[in-house]
Amino acid sequence: MDSLGGAGMSAYASGDPKTQVMRQIQQEAAMQNAKMLVEKLNEHCFERCVPKPGTSLSKGEETCFSNCLQKYMTAWNTVSQQYITAIQKNSSSSQFGSSSF
């Protein structure tokens, strides 16, 4: 029954209820952010690459759409990685008492 996380899921289950709720909220927020990203990707790239929608996409529209999605995702991944790095750096410096407050 524990097919999603093995020992990792049992670690979550053994945590206190407050931590469990916080993790669940974080996961739900991440899913909502992912949905919003996909919607924005489609909206932006479609508007940019398909000026006159029809019953099908031309080869040029398909290429434009694919390239647009790839560029957008590359930029998103770069920004996300930098954000995660900054958070981890800030978190580790806070753990050692070197907070600037």
Automatic annotation (TrEMBL):
GO terms for biological process: protein insertion into mitochondrial inner membrane; protein transport. It is found in: Mitochondrion inner membrane. Its main location: mitochondrion. It is a peripheral membrane protein. One of its GO terms (cellular component) is mitochondrial inner membrane. Heterohexamer; composed of 3 copies of TIM8 and 3 copies of TIM13, named soluble 70 kDa complex. Associates with the TIM22 complex, whose core is composed of TIM22 and TIM54. Interacts with the transmembrane regions of multi-pass transmembrane proteins in transit. This is Mitochondrial import inner membrane translocase subunit. It comes from Lophium mytilinum. The lineage of its organism: Eukaryota, Fungi, Dikarya, Ascomycota, Pezizomycotina.
